[in-house]
Fold:
Amino acid sequence: IQDRVPIVIGGSGERVTLRIAAELADGCNLFGDAATVARLVERLREHCADIGRDPEEIEFGHLGSILLGSDARDVRSRIERLRPADIGPDRFAERVNAGTVEDHEAGFGRLVEAGVRHAVVSVADVGAPDALAPFADLIERC
Structure:
Protein backbone atom coordinates (compact mmCIF):
# COMPACT_ATOMS: atom_id res chain seq x y z
CA ILE A 1 0.00 0.00 0.00
CA GLN A 2 1.33 3.39 -0.99
CA ASP A 3 1.68 6.17 1.57
CA ARG A 4 0.03 8.51 -0.94
CA VAL A 5 -1.43 8.35 -4.40
CA PRO A 6 0.76 10.14 -6.96
CA ILE A 7 -0.84 13.06 -8.77
CA VAL A 8 -0.51 12.79 -12.55
CA ILE A 9 -1.88 15.58 -14.72
CA GLY A 10 -2.61 14.99 -18.39
CA GLY A 11 -2.69 17.83 -20.85
CA SER A 12 -0.65 20.24 -22.88
CA GLY A 13 -1.93 23.67 -21.91
CA GLU A 14 1.25 25.67 -21.59
CA ARG A 15 0.00 28.48 -19.34
CA VAL A 16 -2.47 26.81 -16.98
CA THR A 17 -2.16 23.01 -17.12
CA LEU A 18 1.63 22.93 -17.04
CA ARG A 19 1.74 25.54 -14.29
CA ILE A 20 -0.60 23.41 -12.18
CA ALA A 21 1.58 20.37 -12.93
CA ALA A 22 4.67 22.30 -11.81
CA GLU A 23 2.98 23.23 -8.56
CA LEU A 24 1.23 19.97 -7.66
CA ALA A 25 2.03 16.97 -9.84
CA ASP A 26 4.29 13.97 -9.48
CA GLY A 27 3.84 13.29 -13.18
CA CYS A 28 2.60 14.97 -16.33
CA ASN A 29 1.33 13.15 -19.42
CA LEU A 30 1.71 15.22 -22.57
CA PHE A 31 0.25 15.08 -26.09
CA GLY A 32 1.93 15.70 -29.43
CA ASP A 33 4.94 14.74 -31.49
CA ALA A 34 8.47 14.73 -30.08
CA ALA A 35 9.16 18.36 -31.00
CA THR A 36 5.95 19.49 -29.31
CA VAL A 37 6.67 17.39 -26.24
CA ALA A 38 10.21 18.78 -25.98
CA ARG A 39 8.78 22.31 -26.05
CA LEU A 40 6.18 21.42 -23.39
CA VAL A 41 8.80 19.80 -21.14
CA GLU A 42 10.88 22.96 -21.40
CA ARG A 43 7.84 25.11 -20.60
CA LEU A 44 7.06 22.98 -17.53
CA ARG A 45 10.69 23.31 -16.43
CA GLU A 46 10.30 27.11 -16.71
CA HIS A 47 7.20 26.96 -14.50
CA CYS A 48 9.19 24.89 -11.98
CA ALA A 49 11.98 27.46 -11.99
CA ASP A 50 9.43 30.22 -11.37
CA ILE A 51 8.20 28.52 -8.19
CA GLY A 52 11.53 27.06 -7.06
CA ARG A 53 10.70 23.40 -7.69
CA ASP A 54 13.13 20.82 -9.02
CA PRO A 55 11.64 19.62 -12.35
CA GLU A 56 13.34 16.24 -11.85
CA GLU A 57 10.62 15.52 -9.29
CA ILE A 58 8.11 15.29 -12.16
CA GLU A 59 7.97 12.24 -14.43
CA PHE A 60 6.97 13.04 -18.00
CA GLY A 61 4.74 10.69 -19.95
CA HIS A 62 3.06 10.71 -23.33
CA LEU A 63 -0.58 10.08 -24.22
CA GLY A 64 -1.54 9.11 -27.74
CA SER A 65 -3.31 6.82 -30.15
CA ILE A 66 -1.53 4.05 -31.96
CA LEU A 67 -2.26 1.71 -34.82
CA LEU A 68 0.56 -0.79 -35.00
CA GLY A 69 1.25 -3.22 -37.82
CA SER A 70 3.99 -5.79 -38.17
CA ASP A 71 5.00 -4.39 -41.59
CA ALA A 72 3.88 -1.74 -44.10
CA ARG A 73 1.38 -4.08 -45.75
CA ASP A 74 -0.18 -4.94 -42.38
CA VAL A 75 -0.41 -1.24 -41.50
CA ARG A 76 -2.20 -0.44 -44.80
CA SER A 77 -4.60 -3.33 -44.23
CA ARG A 78 -5.46 -2.13 -40.72
CA ILE A 79 -6.00 1.43 -41.98
CA GLU A 80 -8.39 0.26 -44.71
CA ARG A 81 -10.25 -1.99 -42.29
CA LEU A 82 -10.78 0.78 -39.71
CA ARG A 83 -11.05 4.11 -41.45
CA PRO A 84 -14.42 5.75 -41.94
CA ALA A 85 -15.46 6.14 -45.57
CA ASP A 86 -15.36 9.94 -45.35
CA ILE A 87 -11.72 10.09 -44.22
CA GLY A 88 -8.83 9.43 -46.58
CA PRO A 89 -6.23 6.80 -45.66
CA ASP A 90 -3.40 9.29 -45.10
CA ARG A 91 -5.48 11.51 -42.82
CA PHE A 92 -6.73 8.51 -40.86
CA ALA A 93 -3.19 7.11 -40.56
CA GLU A 94 -2.02 10.42 -39.10
CA ARG A 95 -5.00 10.60 -36.74
CA VAL A 96 -4.31 7.14 -35.24
CA ASN A 97 -0.52 7.35 -35.50
CA ALA A 98 -0.33 4.34 -37.80
CA GLY A 99 3.02 2.71 -38.36
CA THR A 100 5.20 -0.35 -38.20
CA VAL A 101 7.08 -1.62 -35.18
CA GLU A 102 10.19 0.10 -36.54
CA ASP A 103 8.32 3.39 -37.04
CA HIS A 104 7.07 3.37 -33.46
CA GLU A 105 10.40 2.26 -32.01
CA ALA A 106 11.98 5.33 -33.62
CA GLY A 107 9.08 7.55 -32.54
CA PHE A 108 9.26 6.42 -28.92
CA GLY A 109 13.03 6.97 -29.06
CA ARG A 110 12.45 10.60 -30.06
CA LEU A 111 9.95 10.98 -27.22
CA VAL A 112 12.52 9.62 -24.74
CA GLU A 113 15.02 12.19 -26.04
CA ALA A 114 12.36 14.86 -25.40
CA GLY A 115 12.11 13.77 -21.76
CA VAL A 116 9.33 11.15 -21.75
CA ARG A 117 9.72 8.15 -19.43
CA HIS A 118 6.48 6.26 -20.08
CA ALA A 119 3.71 6.11 -22.68
CA VAL A 120 0.00 5.55 -22.35
CA VAL A 121 -1.52 4.45 -25.66
CA SER A 122 -5.02 4.09 -26.97
CA VAL A 123 -4.93 1.15 -29.38
CA ALA A 124 -7.00 2.12 -32.43
CA ASP A 125 -7.98 -1.44 -33.34
CA VAL A 126 -8.05 -2.91 -29.82
CA GLY A 127 -11.13 -5.01 -30.70
CA ALA A 128 -9.36 -6.87 -33.50
CA PRO A 129 -8.14 -10.36 -32.55
CA ASP A 130 -4.61 -9.58 -33.80
CA ALA A 131 -4.37 -5.99 -32.54
CA LEU A 132 -1.94 -6.60 -29.71
CA ALA A 133 0.34 -9.15 -31.39
CA PRO A 134 2.77 -6.56 -32.86
CA PHE A 135 3.13 -4.92 -29.44
CA ALA A 136 5.21 -7.84 -28.16
CA ASP A 137 7.93 -6.98 -30.67
CA LEU A 138 7.67 -3.25 -29.96
CA ILE A 139 7.86 -3.70 -26.20
CA GLU A 140 10.88 -5.99 -26.56
CA ARG A 141 12.66 -3.33 -28.65
CA CYS A 142 11.85 -0.42 -26.35
Remarks:
- Strands lie at 8-10, 27-30, 59-69, 98-100, 116-123.
- The helical segments are 17-24, 34-51, 72-82, 89-95, 101-114, 133-141.
- The chain is about 45% helix and 20% strand.
